Amino acid sequence: VLFRSARAWLLAITAGATLVLALGFADPAWSHAPTLRATAETAITLCALTATWLLRAQFAHSRKLCDLLLFAGLLPLALLHLFSYALPAVLNLRAGSSFAAAVLCGNVFVAATCAAAALAPAGRVLPSGGHPRAVAAGLGVLAVGVAQLGGLLLHNQLVPAATHPVEGIGSASAHPLGVILILLAAGLFSVAAVAFSRRPQTERPRIVTPLAGASVLLAATGLYSLALPALPPDWVAPGLGLRLCAWALVLVAIVGRELEFRAGLRLAAVTAERRRVAGNLHDGLVQDLAFIVAHSKLLATHLGAEHPLIVAVSRALSVSRAAITELSDSSASTVREALEIVAHELSHRFEINVELDGDLAAELPRDTREDLVRIVREAIVNAARHGDAEHVSVSLRRTGEGVVLLVRDDGCGVAHAASDGSRGGFGLRSMRERATDVGGHLILSEPANGGTELEVLLPVHPS
User: Fold this and answer.
1) Do strands 402-409 and 452-458 pair parallel, antiparallel, or not at all (unpaired)?
2) By the 8 A CB rule, do 218 and 111 touch?
């Protein structure tokens, strides 16, 4: 669902950019508005510098190649906008041809770097050590310097010099070298857009879809300059709106990644604390309870196995172990991993065979995942403790209506144990309540070939 939504947004952005381009080639529009131009360029520059700074900090933690390449591309693009657009607009500089020529030269490097970032393996991590950010920043600054020098020396061959807007593809074709650079940069930005658009299958759509949209708009911005080859710093045109939207999308993507990164840090802190508590329980309370249980067997010969003291000790040990495992479940990164932890722990505790089958194409929300894992835990415990099962199978599948959990065992029947008032009844009520809390419902049945079958239907789609 999210992938289809991301594609819809990208198609809408592409359609909007295509419409602006068509109108630009059919009837270019512009207006003399120095204040508006200066304001828009300042906003673009602030978006660019903020996004670049956030990306720099994110690479320090992720060490991903794609983040480094994206930083290497956004930094020179931000500097080019600062020196070639923002400052001339704010200072009302009239000689704008060399600035526009510098942008044409620099855009090729920027587009190539962005395409490389989009095509780079999403999971490729650079080894620690060295100074990759400093190298990337140095290359970015060098690229800006080369672009400014190229614009200064070749501006007559790249763009027309004018104090007023110049329109028409004929004026642009009078500078074939400039047309080549525009088409080359637009092609590379298009490659980046296609590569980013395919990444929602492996990365979060809310991160890569804005980057794909920004690449589309940056490609359209370059092509729009073919319809309006010369636009002095104190004039505005629809191409300026395309650039502003492009940088807004870049900032949205980088801020979204920053929020995701901070959420990951919080989750890591919570996970570390859960593991610490679980370790303390295991090394302290559980060891003492296990010692007491071992010696309570001697007391059971005198007091009886159903004596409240004997039952309370066994119950306390079971609850403590369950608490430790639940703390470990919460540290799992996927629902599959959490279920594997539960299956491994309970199969050893009750000496039963627990078989796990099924993977989701995408992950469940965290709260839903925890409730589902606890339902599976309670179902396995009930099958082993009250149904005397020797084999339990757990299946998890995604369907068109949501997620289906199926737990089968070969015991004498948990439904019978629950109906006659034994302790399995509380576990069944707990599982029903958890299924209801996440908007689903639980079905318990006893197949003709024996055992118990528990089915939980969750009307949610993994996200």
Assistant:
1) antiparallel
2) yes
Determine the Cα–Cα distance for residues 437 and 428; give it in Å rounded to an integer: 14
> Closest Cα partner for 386 from 347, 342, 419?
419
Mean pLDDT value of segment 171-198: 90
Compute the distance between CA of residue 178 and CA of residue 166 in angstroms, rounded to an integer: 15
User: Three-state SS for 355?
Assistant: strand
The pLDDT of 197-226, averaged and rounded, is 83
Amino acid at 440: G
Instruction: For residue 53, give Cα distances in angstroms to 46, 75, 218, 346, 433.
Output: 11, 9, 20, 48, 47
395 by Cβ neighbours in 10 Å (0-12 / 13-18 / 19+) ranks as middle
Contact 105, 222 (CB under 8 A): no
State pLDDT tens for residues 321-335.
666 666 655 555 677
Q: What is the spatial distance between Cα 116 and Cα 192, in angstroms, rounded to a whole number? A: 8
Weakest mean pLDDT among 135-139, 148-152, 246-250, 366-370:
366-370
* Dihedral, CA of residue 385, residue 388, residue 391 and residue 392, to nearest 10: -40
The answer to whether residue 418 scores a pLDDT higher than 60 is no
Residues 296-325: what's their mean pLDDT? 68
Q: What is the rounded CA–CA span in Å between residue 429 and residue 425? A: 6
Whether residue 199 contacts residue 209, with contact meaning beta carbons closer than 8 Å, is answered with no
- Which of 43, 47, 42, 70 has its CA nearest to residue 58? 70
The region of weakest confidence among 102-111, 197-206, 382-391 is 197-206
Give counts: helices (H), strands (E), the chain.
16, 7
- Token pair belonging to 403: 């997620």
